[in-house]
Design a protein that fits this description.
Order of helices and strands: HEEEEEEE
Number of helices: 1
Helix content: 10-25%
Strand order of the largest sheet: 1-7-6-3
CATH class: Mainly Beta
CATH topology: Immunoglobulin-like
Largest sheet: 4 strands, mixed
Length: about 110
Amino acid sequence: MISPRLLGFLAASLAPLSAAAAGAEAAPPGVTPLRLRRGEAVELCQTGTVICPAVAPICDDPALVTFELTGAGLRFRGAKAGETLCSVRSSGGQGTRWVYRVTVVEP
């Protein structure tokens, strides 16, 4: 069984590689790039980038991204075109925040 700590380390280590492979601009270490179209939503727990359940979302520019709590967990939705840093915390007692560089583009 993989420990939550190892899972978090692997997610943080592999996220920049997967972004580079997809042709995305490289993010600083520890920052996961996330690209959304305006109106599009992504379930963070389904991305494999955070230890779930994820809670306490914060964005530098809250006008760009909205948050929803669904049966599948925390959801980010692109609200307005632009780029902002957002973070979420694992409620599993880890206390770690996961940081995302969210880019919202027009559909």
